[in-house]
User: Fold this.
Amino acid sequence: MNNHIAVDIGASSGRLVLGTLLDGTIRLEEIHRFSNGFTERDGSCFWDIEGLLEQIIIGLQKAKAQGIKQCTLGIDTWAVDYVLIDAEGNRVNEVYAYRDQRTDHVMEEVAKHISPAAVYQKTGIQQLTFNTLYQLYAHSHEDLAKADQILLVPDYLYYRLTGTKINESTNASTTQLLNLDTREYDQDLLSVLQLRREQFAELTEPGTELGSIKESLIQQYDLPECRMICAATHDTASAVLGVPIQSGRSSAYISSGTWSLLGVELTRPLNNTKSMEANYTNEWGAYGTYRFLKNIMGLWLIQEVRRLDGERYSFAELAELAAEAEPFRSLIPCNDSRFLNPDHMIEEIRTACAESGQPIPETPGQLARCIFDSLAFSYRTYLEELEELTESSIEVLQIVGGGANNQLLCQLTANVIGREVSAGPTESTALGNLVVQMISTGSITDINEARAIIGRSFEIQTYTPQPISNLQALLRRWDALHQVTTGETL
Assistant:
């Protein structure tokens, strides 16, 4: 079988991508694209989970209309958010979005039961207010008592399509409930939440076959016969699998989308005191790896600016306006928690600049330039921190995902970090999803071969650093700003 479909859903959009392996290269075709986003009701933020399922079915109908009668299919989405289902298999309530403010002060409450240091030693997962650990602590105990199973978002979508309940390991690790030593749910943390291990399905590894899509769905909606394969369901895990090999050169990656995830792939977790204090995470990867990385507020900033500006400009046009604006006029500490889900992103950025005595960005171009400049400086700070923690030297920064299309941001990053930036492929997440399917079916031998194939299948843009005349003064300014409000309480 040479038809493989990746269902790749992010926080702002989703798509179904067809992947085929021809003459030693992977070819992609987007079958269906749709918007995603949370809605706010009565002071809370929710995902339209049934709407996402509907979009998957629409995409599969389009695939069937194109003549695809049989395929494999894998699903990846964002992390940490979950669905409660009762003993009859029905959803207990709406699905909270991680930007909901119900967890704002939950960390302090959980710390009364178990220290953050103990949690990190057990799990290796960075402290973020929206981790599933804190979401479940904030959740109604009455609802949790009704939950026969707690599934993360992609697990639920697999369940609705197949009837099989899983907890896929790369995504389950982001819950901050898995123990690095036992590679199981940690009983102490479950006790804090008053939950039972039985409320979580068995941990499932990427590449596991989950059976076929329900015959009832095939008949009702005229869908292809889909052989369901468990992808690395956390989109960052899939994105990292889609990073091409840098032969003979040490590299770090940024998976650049709504979030910027900067890190390296390790074969052993790094959950010592230094990594805990720096708030780095050890998310489980596919094929026995760990994603040692930092969560950085990413293109969410420009997405919100564009939305609030009435979407007058495309992202490409905003980048063009930013290129024409004065560089390094205003900077913001991107990881400050004030930017997680403010009432009005544009006003929040302007207020932050005013508070730090900087010029206020007024125009769309100035706002975009502020964001891109600030992201580049954030990448420098955390890349240097990553080198110190891993005791390694990074030669190349590989940017994959949507941010790889932003030539201004990629060149700015190369200039500020003083190293080569390798940008692409854009569809790294879908590619990571697809190569797991191809490895599972035997079309590709292993992940090393897959990454080599990805490297020759897609154009990779190289950005060489160009000198910044006042870089040292800018770094002093950035360091002062970053140290005052680092946002590490996220």
In short: The longest strand covers residues 25-35. Residues 76 and 233 are 4 Å apart (CA to CA). The chain has a mean pLDDT of 96. The two ends are 44 Å apart (CA to CA).
